[in-house]
Amino acid sequence: MKIIQVADQKEGGKVAFAVLKERLQEGAKVLGLATGSTPLTLYQEIVASDLDFSELTSLNLDEYVGLTAEDPQSYAYFMKEHLFQYKPFAKSYLPNGVAENLDEEVERYNQLLEAHPIDVQVLGIGQNGHIGFNEPGTSFESRTHVVDLEDSTIKANARFFEDASQVPKQALSMGIASIMAAKSIILMAYGQEKAEAVAGAVNGSVTPDLPASILQEHDDVVLIVDQAAGSLL
Ligand code: GLP
Fold first, then answer.
1. CATH number of the domain located at residue range(s) 8-185 in this protein
2. Residue 114's pLDDT is what?
3. Catalytically annotated residue among 45, 105, 130, 134
4. From the CB of 34, is ligand 1 less than 6 Å away?
């Protein structure tokens, strides 16, 4: 794992952008995208750039179950607001959180991932070490699946909602094997509340108890951290 320490999230966005640009120059055509506050500065850099994504494909990591793409809390809405309205891709996919049959939706998403192998995966990390919405205990073999969110994740994400009771209890998420299949990964973490998860991911034992620890076994991960998130490394 290559670790780059930056002054703050703004610089992190610039560094992540530079890495992404390099991968695009090397021929990357399919991007795996993430939501949450972490990738925002990267998306700002992309929006401000002259990069053209009109021939690229994107697949997002996850989506809340029960939220439509028009719901401002949905990840589909987030992606449109922060990236897609400015930088449209040839095709952008997210799991459909309001699919009538979630098992079929899982199957559809796995097929999409097979048809469009991810070249560059953008990743954040949860305070409990989750990646995507793969909570502690998720099998390293997992592909797309329906997830019961942990109370701690619901609490952490409540800041985007009116209160914690509004946060959906389930999500659809790419699995850990789906994430590990990406050719290269850009993992970002900012702030003290990520420090333990980051330390475990980088130096801890590789265990489903800390899903991000599996990234130690991937041969092309760039980890970008600010001082606080990297303080236990
Ligand atoms: C959510 C998302 C993850 C994200 C994590 C961290 O649970 N499903 O993809 O990495 O939260 O969020 P944030 O970047 O807002 O700290």
1. 3.40.50.1360
2. 98
3. 130
4. yes
Is 128 a residue of the active site? yes
Q: Which atom of ligand 1 is the closest one to the Cα of 125?
A: 10
Residue at token pair 């040839």: 90
Query: By alpha-carbon position, which residue is closest to atom 6 of ligand 1?
Result: 126
The pLDDT tens digits for 13-27 are 999 999 999 999 999
pLDDT band at residue 93 using 50, 70 and 90 as cut-offs:
very high
Q: 178 CB less than 6 Å from ligand 1?
A: no
Active site residue 62: yes
**pTM for the full model?**
0.96
- Average pLDDT score over residue span 35-61: 97
Q: Domains of the chain: which residue ranges?
A: 8-185
Active site residue 110: no
DSSP 33-74: E--SSTTHHHHHHHHHS----TT-EEEESEEETT--TTSTTS
User: How big is the chain, counted in residues?
Assistant: 233
